[in-house]
Specification:
The chain is of the alpha/beta class. It has two domains: 227 residues, Alpha-Beta Barrel (TIM Barrel); 99 residues, Lyase, Ornithine Decarboxylase, Chain A, domain 1 (Beta Barrel). The chain is 29% helix and 21% strand. It contains eleven helices and 16 strands. The strands form three sheets. Strands 1, 8, 11, 12, 13, 14, 15 and 16 form an eight-stranded mixed beta sheet that branches. The protein has a six-stranded parallel beta sheet with strand order 2-3-4-5-6-7. α1 crosses α3, α4 packs parallel to α5 and α10 crosses α11. It is elongated and about 80 Å long.
């Protein structure tokens, strides 16, 4: 359930997500949109429905429960659960909701095989490999035993192999990316040598944009679908040209007050105004997912002018110095993300002020109520 007690508003422009999908698809290779975590805060079903209309045939979610929610909402496309079954009920639910689980560990594979033995038909599965992330997946050393084991599993049908790139968005680590890619190629070759036809997918957003040689049979872009450039601030930033941020976040100005030079602002007196100015009090704070870490660091857009966050961000309020923005009054919208004009707040900028990445910005602010255009 979204946060329901506040005044913040999240606007999601589905047309921009469609446009980003087309841009990424044009770079080559079938695109499997990643819509986990409520489509990175943009709304699981609205986003999936829009992308299905654009031709997306398979979606990647995180948990089996997300797959179930997507199927219940009416999704008829393929659904891949990147985390696979974690709780006992999720094993049988894979058959009920027609989801492909990613399996990267022998214990989970054996449990799924036990469940498959009493189910009415085979289940398509994916196999995940650790090629350098050191997080989830079979190792390359596991390959001989794994291939022997899956050849004897009548109830499970491997249709996909995947791995996860650790640093595709870091140009200085291109050598590490090459090492992961080479390991993955050996994995794919081992399956082919056994006569197993599987879809291989490796590329994330950054690799879709920068490494067409890693397209394989499918690609899994995530954050770029929502308009964030994984190469922001690097020498490869131009590769993200054309991506349009789909999320905009605003909250109402509820009070405007004059303050004199030297007056302190907010908890802890962490800011004192240097000249006579005006403050706008905005109905948004850390209870709405707008981080307290943006105190005296963040910026917002009011009447087309960027204005600084001053004082500490409160639970449901924050203060902006609007002395240089003309005519601000209660009822105006303060854009915390997005907004109109050349000064619109980009997710990469907000993430920098926040001390995080656009992924977290989207996921946290996306917990609020959403409107779609």
């Amino acid at each position: 359930m979204p946060i329901g007690y506040n005044k913040i508003e999240v606007l999601v422009r589905l047309g921009r997500i469609r446009s980003n999908f087309r841009l990424l698809e044009a770079k080559g290779g079938r695109v499997m949109p990643v819509v986990k975590a409520d489509a990175y805060g943009h709304g699981l079903w609205p986003v999936a429905r829009a992308l299905a209309e654009e031709g997306a045939r398979t979606f990647a979610v995180g948990t089996v429960e997300e797959a179930a929610d997507l199927r219940r909402a009416g999704c008829r496309a393929g659904i891949v659960s990147l985390l696979g079954p974690l709780d006992a009920w999720e094993y049988e639910a894979l058959w009920e909701f027609g989801a492909i689980p990613m399996i990267g560990e022998f214990g989970r594979l054996e449990e799924l095989a036990r469940v498959a033995s009493r189910m009415p038909g085979p289940l398509d599965i994916g196999l995940k490999f650790d090629t350098g992330m050191s997080r989830l997946g079979f190792s390359e050393a596991d390959l001989p035993g794994l291939l022997d084991r899956i050849s004897g599993l009548a109830g499970l049908r491997p249709v996909m192999v995947s791995s996860h790139l650790a640093a595709a968005d870091v140009p200085d680590l291109a050598g590490f990316l090459d090492g992961q890619a080479e390991t993955f190629r050996r994995v794919v070759s081992a399956f082919k040598a056994r006569g197993l036809e599987v879809e291989a997918n490796l590329a994330n957003s950054a690799a879709v944009m920068a490494r067409p040689d890693l397209a394989f049979q499918g690609q899994r872009p995530g954050v770029s679908l929502y308009g964030a450039n994984p190469f922001w601030g690097t020498d490869l930033a131009e590769l993200g040209q054309g991506l349009e941020p789909a999320m905009e976040v605003s909250a109402p100005v509820i009070e405007v007050r004059d303050v004199a030079r030297g007056q302190s602002v907010g908890y802890g007196c962490t800011h004192r105004v240097e000249e006579n100015t005006r403050l706008a009090v905005v109905a948004a704070g850390y209870a709405d997912g707008y981080s307290r870490g943006l105190s005296n660091r963040g910026w917002a857009l009011v009447r087309g002018v960027r204005v600084p966050v001053v004082g500490r961000v409160c639970m449901q309020l924050l203060m902006l110095d609007v002395g240089r923005a003309p005519g601000v009054e209660p009822g105006d919208r303060a854009w915390l993300l997005g907004g109109d004009g050349p000064q619109a707040i980009r997710p990469e900028e907000l993430a920098e002020w926040w001390g995080t990445i656009p992924y977290e910005v989207f996921c946290l602010l996306g917990l609020n109520r959403k409107k779609y255009v």
